[in-house]
Amino acid sequence: MMTSKEIRQQFLDFFKSKEHLIVPSAPLVAKNDPTLMFNNSGMAQFKDFFLGNGTPPSKRIADTQKCLRVSGKHNDLEDVGFDTYHHTMFEMLGNWSFGDYFKKEALSWSWELLTEVYKLPKDRIYVSVFQGDDKDGVPFDQEAWDIWKAIVGEERIILGNKKDNFWEMGETGPCGPCSEIHIDLRDEAEVALKSGKELVNNDHPQVVEIWNNVFMQFERMADGSLVPLPSRHVDTGMGFERLCMAVQGKQSNYDTDVFQHTIGFVGNKCGKVYGQDKWSDIALRVIADHIRAIAFVIADGQLPSNNKAGYVIRRILRRAVRYGYTYLGFREPFMHSIIPLLADQFAEVFPELKAQQDFVAKVILEEENSFLRTLENGLTLLDKIIAETKSQQSTVIKGDAVFELNDTFGFPVDLTALIARENGLSIDEEGYKAALQAQKERSRKDATTSAEDWVILDEDFEKVEFVGYDEFETTSQLVKFQK
Ligand code: ATP
Ligand code: MG
Ligand code: MG
Ligand code: MG
After folding, report:
1. Residues 311 and 227 in one domain
2. Where would you tag: which of 8, 66, 123, 244 has the fewest CB atoms within 10 A of its CB?
3. Would the keyword tRNA-binding turn up in this protein's UniProt record (predicted)?
């Protein structure tokens, strides 16, 4: 069986043989792009080239890009662990043409790579083509249709709408149709019952999208009209973990060697075997997923903190710790101990983790310690609140309870919402915001009389959150109240 390392290398070698320059992944933390918190696609680091600012080092480039989809337009966090093919952090394999080759080459190469190099079964592959949108003035992608028809035949082509098959950088700017490649990994018996074609884009865990080919050929003008671009570009992205699932003949990304080491390691530590219990499996998946995101974001220079990108990471970490606590019985920090294993696994492709392995593990250990100190009491309180809520025939946890859990026990609001959901409840977000606002007013007043020099108040700070008592010492965490 091809290992994940080999699968990644084959991709890069294939495009190298088609005269692509192989470049390293950009950092996960998006620098110099105010519209993006984290890198969420392969093309992000090349955005300027598509906008005509600067010249790429080569007209053909390929790489594997670390991506994180936990905020903004692409937020897959709620699916992670519950499904088997969306991750927080994943690798996106990509190839690009900057004003060089176009649809013909891109689509036939993707077919060649999938069926000849990876030897995926041709009768399990479906492709999609943009159907056009009259209202918006974008035409049906006849060109892609004709190319695919010659390769796979009409019966394997699906027409897709604007949501799935048309890409736009923003309100204005480059845009164009996409063509996605999907694979049906169900067993023969199931395939005999229902055609895979019907299941494409239907959230079936074994009929998944693996690759997206975007063709930038128009520019959206401020008045909404579309003008053909003088030079046309190709931007593709393939989910590496999904590709590994397909090539290794697995039913879930987590069954591939990308995740099996971590799952085995964590399972050993807590005495659970993956595949035996629904909730411990979800917890093992969440942890195997989240630790990668946390580790690589820290290695790329973003420490957990109480605001923006740092708070996203802290929330992901607390989520994982709580899954470990509730479903795997962990009472002591455990996440940090996975780092050496991950560092070795990715040493060749993303050496930044190996290079900072001890530091990353230390940051995570501090975070775990700080959250575990309040987790148990917070969960006890939340259990009480849940029981009360139910006894009052309500399905909504009150806002001030959500606030107290956040303020006193360090429970991110989405974590409380998640636990509420597991109990068939939701949270009162408006009520939470009101409680938060009231707290801000109080702090503002207090701060004017407070003598504590570590309380630094910003006039219009937005978030007030408990950070634990002896946090890792970064300047952003020495202050209790901050923006
Ligand atoms: P999906 O419809 O499955 O959410 P997408 O259409 O949002 O995927 P694209 O933006 O087209 O994804 O990204 C290109 C490729 O990256 C996808 O074809 C898929 O293989 C992979 N991918 C996207 N999101 C994730 C994720 N959260 N985890 C793992 N792989 C992903
Ligand atoms: Mg998506
Ligand atoms: Mg999709
Ligand atoms: Mg897609």
Report:
1. no
2. 123
3. yes
